[in-house]
Amino acid sequence: MSFTDFKGVKADAESRMAKAFDALKKDFSGLRTGRATTSMLDSIVVDAYGSKSPLNQVASISVPDPRTLSIQVWDRGVAKSVEKAIREANLGLNPVSDGQLIRVPIPPLSEERRIEITKIAAKYTEQAKVAVRNIRRESLDAVKKLEKDGYISEDERKRNEEEIQKLTDVNSKKLDEALKVKEQEIKQV
């Protein structure tokens, strides 16, 4: 990346930090909290028609109540593969098939599993924070290069470095708040 002004560096950093936050939210959506959500099954891949397909490409998923997922398989021949994929996904789910309709009851979480999921959420958050810090480091390097190449003065570099640090602090705080919300969600169910 080659920048000729700080606006480009800052816009790039903001965009990449927002992507780190979005990635964290996606990671969180895959964590089972005891409440049924269609995103719980996003990572499931089914053997269908001789190839691997995401579950949402062979069936429609709905949430009829907070403790049940309902999967309407479009082709009866794939139902057994869907059942098997859900069981093998290591989510602690036990699907019940009724022809083309598969019901997945969501069991309540044990205290041990809640602690485990909370630790996983913390790990995801730390990974996102590392990404944000790496973006900060790369942005600071870009600002130093702008000064070295004569595009900005030393005072502008220092001011820009402060802005990047503020941006980093804001995004780190957003990540921490997202973790707190997820921890509360895990505890409440």
Query: Strand order, biggest sheet?
Result: 3-4-6-5
What's the CATH topology label of the largest domain? Topoisomerase I, Chain A, domain 4
H and E order: HEEEEHEEHH
Molecular shape: elongated
Number of strands: 6
The fraction of residues assigned to DSSP E strands is: 15-25%
Write down the oligomeric state.
single chain
Q: List the total number of helices.
A: 4
Helix content range: 55-70%
Number of domains: 2
- Return the CATH class of the largest domain: Mainly Alpha
Query: Regions with pLDDT < 50 over 5+ consecutive residues?
Result: none
Average of per-residue pLDDT values? 89
Q: Give a short account of the largest sheet.
A: 4 strands, antiparallel
Secondary-structure-derived class: alpha+beta
CATH superfamily of the largest domain, by name, is Ribosome-recycling factor
Distance between the termini: 46 Å
